[in-house]
Amino acid sequence: MSVPVFLTVDTELMWRHHAARLSVDELFARSFEPAGVGIAHMLATLARTGLKACFFVDPMPALVFGLDPIRRVVEAILQAGQEVQLHLHPNWSGAAADDGGASYSRFQMVEYSRDDQSDLIAGGIDLLVAAGAPRPVAFRAGSYSANDDTLRALVRNGIAYDSSHNGSEHPWPSQIDLPVRQIAPVERLGIVEVPVTLIEERPGHLRNFQVCALSLGEMRAALDHAVAQEHAAVTIVTHGFELANRTGTRPNAVHVRRFEALCALLAARADAMPTQHFAGLPALRTGHADTPLSPDPLRTRWRQAEQLWSNLVAERAA
């Protein structure tokens, strides 16, 4: 039995660059195409390896900067044969272009009422469609910040899938009322929740399956575990800016190597672990008791050493 894989890319304007008063062109460049390893690089890697990916695009900055920059990134993703779904950071709804981040609305979706969340989601859908995307069927809240009111608001707006539940970010800001260790898709409140996959890096401590969070060895082991245990799905996270350093001025060699190796791994396992789009409304197996990969001290120590090197060398701005 094959294990469907959702390779997801949160595609968003970086608030810290806005707060640093970068020019609009630089703000978008460092968020979407930092140091030559942004969205275009990811799309080229996906094309080379024959993989499908979901780009969760946040259109809310269009309220501040206009639709054109969002339209360009949506167009690039769709032309590459990948899908665009809805991502949303609500703080942009109160932002202003030239004030260095002084103006903003509340940052987390869970800080809003159900009706306010519904209005934010409806507005996000309208902006995303205006930017050229098909009407979205899947959603991920910014910072995984969602609760059961979010799910109800999504159903009200015709969204079929949510992928905001992340047990490693519970209880703040990820607040959907599901078990912390829930990683299998589950039907809840009229929507299919597709949680972010987790591993247990040490007893009682969970870590999400994200390119900047796991070593290649941990990712390979998590994929092996999912196949061996016949998991209902694997959901992997990265960001459009994640392969560069924090300032977006040079590649992070560790993260670039991880992403490209992960894509090669998934390509080699395409029969057992086919990558999926949400747009086809896949019928996912729900109700499974999938469990995170168990701890392995050697794997964890290797990742910690690799991350130390990344922090000391790869993250240093040119």
Strand portion = 5-15%
Indicate the percent of residues in helices: 25-40%
- What is the radius of gyration computed over CA atoms, rounded to a whole number of angstroms? 18 Å
Tell me about the biggest sheet? 8 strands, mixed
Q: Strands across the major sheet, in which order?
A: 6-7-5-4-3-2-1-10
* Element pattern in H and E: EHHHEHHEHEHEEEEEHEHH
Number of strands: 10
Average pLDDT, all residues? 95
End-to-end separation in angstroms reads 47 Å
Can you walk through the features of this model?
The chain has helices at residues 15-19, 24-32, 39-49, 62-65, 68-79, 114-130, 148-156, 216-228, 253-268, 297-314; strands at 5-11, 54-57, 83-88, 138-141, 161-162, 186-188, 191-193, 198-202, 205-208, 234-239. It is α/β, with parallel strands linked by helices and 318 residues long. It has an eight-stranded mixed sheet. Strand 6 (186-188) and strand 7 (191-193) form a beta hairpin. Helix 3 (39-49) packs parallel to helix 9 (253-268) and helix 6 (114-130) packs across helix 7. It is globular.
Layout of helices and strands, plus pairs?
Layout: E1 5-11, H1 15-19, H2 24-32, H3 39-49, E2 54-57, H4 62-65, H5 68-79, E3 83-88, H6 114-130, E4 138-141, H7 148-156, E5 161-162, E6 186-188, E7 191-193, E8 198-202, E9 205-208, H8 216-228, E10 234-239, H9 253-268, H10 297-314
Helix pairs in contact: 3-9, 6-7
